[in-house]
Structures are given as structure tokens and as C-alpha cells.
Amino acid sequence: MIELAHLTKQFGGVTALDDVSLRIDAGERLALVGENGAGKSSLMNVLYGLYQPDSGTISFDGVPTRLRTPAAALARGVGMVHQHFTLVPTLSVAENVVLGHEPRRGLGLDLSRARTEVAATCASLGFELDPRALVSSLTVGSQQKVEIVKALHRGVKTLVLDEPTAVLTPQEATELFAVTRTLSERGLTVILISHKLKEVLTFATRIAVMRRGRKVTEVSPQGTTPEALAEAMIGRAAPVGSHAPATPGPVVLSLHQVCSQGLVDVSLELRAGEILGIAGVDGNGQRELTEVVTGLRPFTSGVLTVAGQRVDRLDPARARALGVAHVPEDRLRRALVADLTVEENVSLGRHTQPPFAKGPRIDFAGRRARTLELVNANDVRPPTPTLRGGALSGGNQQKLVVARELDAKPKLLVVNQPTRGLDIAAVEAVRERLRAQRLEGCGVLLVSLDLDEVLALADRLVVFARGRAVATFERATFDERLIGQHMLGVAHA
After folding, report:
1. What is the reported pTM?
2. What is the CATH architecture assignment of 251-488?
């Protein structure tokens, strides 16, 4: 048993943890839920030795223990898989897993033994991972599996998963939870941080709810509902959005037999005032599509038209000049600069324009004022313009990126995983922003691995498989089962 008693943690003037006490029993599946900034990840980072509490104690089997580093936590059997992966892309799966405790042959690495051991761990979990494969070549879902293998390979007894299904397909999420149940039956304790209440109710044996740094309640899955959990998380009834009929305008994006690395003869159209959803299993060309449209990836053949202009070559600067805004799937690597402040991140891409600049000079007062307007309007916590972007929680980083991109008043908005890592209230707030953009005449290209999200938002839906657009559905003909079959390539089986 692990007992967290009266833990308090402050960052500057912000209280991340406020007198939190929590018991964690051996072999249980504990879910930790709450809004972005509620303190869930901070609490687990204290348990993992990344943060030192200002006050309070951590006890293992009744013995108070000071965890000064993650190495100390690992020594006590606590491992953590973070929302943003800590893998080395240029190393193989096996090298990442054994990094820091490598098997040796003389003075060198025994790579053959490492591959054998990692393959055995993968097999025990049912993960199909090639120990020789470079991490950079893996899909996001497979990288998630590598992180889990890395933790379990070190013999942890308590495994913390921070938003593990945020990057997984429904099939991969089902597979992950099957694995965690098996691990729990073997005596491993699994702690899940998640915003997806349906999966929490399916996964957990106990649920702890946090709000604004405090633990507010504990419930059993059998004794609660998604609606009750949502209300406990945000302190009020959760908002529910509605989908008004679309009134499409002129074509703002057209691809005709476009080919690129990862894309094969893709043809589709998106009109102003509609949301076009892209559904597919991760790694089937969705990212490549968004990169071609935003100028991050060249296309080798075909015709691309953006905002009424045919473009033979497109780069990010020209895409922005044409009215394209982009919310990428990896906010920390593609959308933010972790070491820049919040206000500097808000100005990225428009730093030479008002209100961020006056002529050739930065308008510091204008930038600060606009940043405060955006963070307050979008509930980015803490609302501190001078805070480093990397110091925000994952969900608050996402809210900041979405706020910045929508503030540009785009003609074409390309969003990939727009609600990844967000809590219920923030998810609905972002979805309402996307619906509002559509009503204002913006064309929205929505890519999401969450099929429920695509079905909730899209006016039309295109299924991608093996880099091709294999099927198109109008909203009136959405059929989740048939869409899923197209995603898996078995629609005609």
C-alpha cells in the first residue's frame, strides 16, 4: 500500500496541490480524474519523484519515504508513462527500453541480450513491437507501447499512466486496458489519469476526483455515472453542444489526385462553412494530409488549391498568408516552444503584425494585453503571460494553441487531435469554438483518432486507409460500423 498524506505543492503563487491525501492499494486499478490544472499530474509527479512536496508525506507499507528523484521512485517500484513521451527517436525500441540499465558484455552493451529481453517482455504483454525498429519510425500508438514496456521491464509494482489513450485508436485503447487488467490480476497497481469518463468507468476499480488542487471525492465505478463524475470534476453540470445544419459556401480546399510520401492519389474538397472529418487508424496518411495542406510536406503530383488559389509549391509562411491556421497533433514539438513564455508563444506566426508589433519593433504592451485576453477567454491556467510554455499542463498547452490559431481568423482551419488531453469542459469548449468557426464561414479540416469526436463534429467524413481516401460519408449516412470497417480495410469482407 502507498499512502499520500496531506501533500501540498506550490509553483510560485499557484497552488497545484492543496492538502491532498490518497491511499493506493496493491493490485487495484485507480483512476484519477479532474479538469486541466486540477493537480492530477502534479500529484503523480510527486509520487514519481519529479516534484518535491512543500509539505506532507509519502509512505510505502506504513513507512514514510522521501522520493528525491525518479530513480528513487523506481527503486520503490513506481514507474510513470508521461503524456509526452520520453523516448530517444534515433535509438531502437530495445535501446530505449534498456537505456540507463543496459545489459553488459564486458565494457560494452550486450545488444543481443537486450533485444531478447525486450522481445520477451513485449510477448508477455501481447505487443507486436520489433526490438530493432527505430522509435522514429513508429506510430504514436506504438511509441506509447514502448513507454509501457520500458516501465515494466524495470520491474515496477505501481504503474502510472498519464492520459495513455489520448493518442490511441479505439482498438489500441481496448488492447491497452486488456493488458492493464491482466497486470492488475498479477498484482501490479495501475493508476490511470484520464479525461475520458466512459473508459474510466470501464477500467477502474476506484475513482478519485480532483478539482483545483484538492481531492473532492472518491467513488466506485458501480456507484456513479459519467454525468455525475463530470459535475464533480467541474463543480457544475457539464455543457452539452449541438450540431446545427451546415450551409456550405465556396471551396476553400481542393486536392485532386495529390501524391506525396504517405499519400496516394488523394482527392477531396472542403467548403467554407463546413467541417470535413478525416477518420482512420493512426499512421494511414492523416498526418501527411495535414502537412501537405499546411506547407510542411511537399506534394509530388496532383493539384492543390487553397483559398481559391492553385499552388504548385506551398510552405508554412505562404499557407498562413492564404489564411490557413494549423493545430498540429503534437503541441509540444510542433505548436509551442517550451522555453518561450506564454505571451511569446501567442505571438508566434504573427509576431510582425499588430497587436504584437509596431512597425519593426515588438509591441510588448500590446502583446501582453492580447495574451491576457486570450488566456482568460480560453481558461488557460494559470493565466500568467510570463510563464514558460513548457510549464503549462498538457491540456492548458492545447487550449493556448487553439486560442492562438483561432485568433488569426482563418479561412481554412486544419486541426489534428484538437481535444487531445483536455477535460470534459475544455473538450466541449474547443468543439464549440470549431462549430463557431464553421458558422462564421471558415472551412475546418478535422483529423482525430477519436471516431466519436469526428462523428459529433463533421458534416462530411472521409476515411483514410493506407494513404488513400477510401470512402466518403455525408452526415445523414454516418454508420459507425461501416466506417470502422473501412478504417480497418475490411468493408467488403
Report:
1. 0.69
2. 3-Layer(aba) Sandwich (3.40)
